[in-house]
């Protein structure tokens, strides 16, 4: 069966292109092992984890304001919260199904895809193997949890176990050990700490959130819950079961072996791209982070594209969506296509409590590249919204080229960081200057007014 486009995967790197091209009359097939759209983001990633995160944030604020007259202790119904998470996932799956059913020329097939040539895809389905030919192939197979070769790693829970629909976790553990201090591990640590769990985070490196500018991390970490104990340079040696359902983790720290126990051990050692079978044999070149692509999402093989986590460039759902649309425009326009992916203006948020967000060039990169810059700051201790919520730690940091005052990047740590970074990211993408930002009347009393106020400090 011939198609104009076959996508391997049906998540954020695949379905935007599929819908865009199907609505132009092209014949599209999406192949996905889950048999549903939206990939890991909806299945076990950003949507369910943020459903939990929003409850955790409101829970912390409720406790802060309870002194105004609430009598009695607040009691969390953990199972009802998890049911709420499930209901959000169900609604979104229904929305995706409805959109798919209303789009002629677009099909979704459940199965495992394999590239058998540069144009041919075999799909192992419940009914056997089927063969398809695509004029264009889009690899959007995403990423999966990385499980390091640690004895007893099978005793640990992962993001799949915790955030999937109908999770087996129905109650909040009193103690949690998190293996890995990256964004998944640290976010989950702050959620459990908000609900009262004692959390130990074991990070192999010498910094929490490895790969993120140390200046951002140093502003965030002091604001984390006192119930979180981070241990850096901790090499986990084994995980074993104990009596009464507890788990014991042995790790090496400062040349000393240490044993600790907890009700739950959460494995968050990172993620790695899922490379479809046959991709290498078809000639698709791999890079250090995944499949190599250019800014038009093209691999080295003509007519084969790779979008989303599988290329490792910006492993975020919203980045995958934008990459997918760039791919669609490239297919539509061929060599005349003008759309390109701007990897440098994709905002990133670590959804801890509080959150930390950044976009563009941050201080360490600017210094490494010897780019002259000026910093503009706005601290939340002077912000009216932060004062209203009693969350005055952190602030906004913007970085402008010293000569042109063009905005190069910025970061936010603290209240509304995940929302503020969108405005900053748009300004970076559009090449706006400090004067452009300073001239905009951000509304009061919102933390966003700190963006224009920071910019005005340069004049």
From TrEMBL:
Tell me which UniProt keywords the record has, alphabetically: FAD, Flavoprotein, NAD, Nucleotide-binding
Keyword flag NAD: yes
**Active site residues of this protein:** 444
What processes in GO biological process is this protein linked to?
Answer: 2-oxoglutarate metabolic process
Q: What GO molecular function annotation could you give as one example from this UniProt entry?
A: flavin adenine dinucleotide binding
Listed as disulfide-bonded, the cysteine pairs are 41-46
Q: Where does the chain bind FAD?
A: 50, 309
Q: Where does NAD(+) bind?
A: 180-187, 203, 270
Provide the cofactor note recorded for this chain's UniProt entry: Binds 1 FAD per subunit.
Q: Where is the Pyridine nucleotide-disulphide oxidoreductase dimerisation domain?
A: 346-454
Instruction: Indicate the segments forming the FAD/NAD(P)-binding domain, all copies.
Output: 3-323
Q: Which cofactor does it need?
A: FAD
**InterPro entries named in the record:** Class-I_Pyr_Nuc-Dis_Oxidored, FAD/NAD-bd_sf, FAD/NAD-binding_dom, FAD/NAD-linked_Rdtase_dimer_sf, Pyr_nuc-diS_OxRdtase, Pyr_nucl-diS_OxRdtase_dimer
Q: Which family does it belong to?
A: Belongs to the class-I pyridine nucleotide-disulfide oxidoreductase family.
By what name is this protein known? Putative dihydrolipoamide dehydrogenase
What organism, scientifically named, is this protein from? Answer: Leptospirillum ferrooxidans (strain C2-3)
């Amino acid at each position: 069966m011939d198609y104009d486009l076959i996508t391997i995967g049906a998540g954020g790197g695949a379905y935007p292109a599929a819908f865009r091209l199907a609505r132009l009359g092209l014949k599209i097939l999406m192949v996905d092992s889950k048999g549903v759209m939206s990939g890991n983001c909806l299945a076990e990633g950003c949507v369910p984890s943020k459903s939990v995160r929003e409850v955790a944030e409101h829970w912390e604020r409720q406790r802060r304001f309870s002194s105004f007259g609430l009598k009695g202790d607040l009691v969390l119904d953990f199972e009802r919260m998890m049911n709420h998470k499930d209901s959000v996932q169900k609604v979104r799956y229904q929305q995706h199904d409805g959109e798919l059913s209303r789009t002629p020329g677009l099909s979704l097939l459940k199965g495992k895809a394999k590239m058998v040539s540069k144009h041919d895809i075999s799909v192992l389905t419940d009914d056997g193997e089927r063969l398809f030919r695509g004029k264009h192939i889009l690899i959007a197979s995403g990423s999966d949890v990385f499980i390091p070769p640690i004895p007893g790693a099978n005793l640990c829970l992962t993001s799949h176990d915790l955030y999937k629909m109908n999770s087996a976790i129905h109650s909040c553990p009193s103690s949690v050990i998190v293996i890995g201090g990256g964004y998944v591990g640290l976010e989950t640590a702050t959620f459990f700490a908000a609900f009262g769990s004692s959390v130990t985070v074991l990070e192999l490196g010498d910094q929490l959130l490895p790969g993120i500018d140390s200046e951002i991390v140093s502003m965030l970490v002091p604001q984390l819950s006192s119930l979180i104990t981070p241990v850096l340079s901790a090499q986990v040696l084994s995980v074993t079961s104990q009596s009464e359902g507890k788990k014991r983790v042995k790790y090496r720290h400062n040349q000393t072996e240490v044993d600790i126990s907890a009700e739950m051990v959460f494995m968050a050692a990172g993620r790695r791209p899922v490379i479809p079978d046959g991709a290498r044999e078809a000639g698709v070149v791999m890079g250090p982070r995944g499949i190599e692509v250019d800014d038009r999402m093209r691999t080295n093989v003509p007519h084969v594209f790779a979008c989303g986590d599988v290329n490792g460039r910006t492993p975020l759902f919203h980045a995958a969506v934008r990459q997918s649309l760039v791919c669609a425009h490239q297919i539509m326009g061929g060599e005349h296509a003008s759309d390109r992916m701007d990897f440098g203006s994709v905002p990133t948020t670590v959804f801890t409590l509080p959150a930390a967000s950044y976009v563009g060039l941050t201080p360490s990169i600017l210094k490494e590249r010897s780019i002259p810059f000026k910093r503009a700051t706005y601290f939340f201790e002077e912000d009216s919204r932060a004062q209203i919520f009693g969350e005055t730690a952190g602030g906004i940091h913007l970085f402008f080229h010293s000569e042109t005052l063009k905005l190069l990047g910025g970061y936010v740590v603290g209240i509304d960081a995940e929302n503020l970074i969108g405005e900053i990211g748009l300004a970076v993408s559009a090449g706006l200057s400090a004067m452009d930002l300073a001239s905009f009347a951000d509304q009061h009393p919102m933390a966003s007014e700190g963006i224009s106020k920071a910019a005005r400090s340069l004049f």
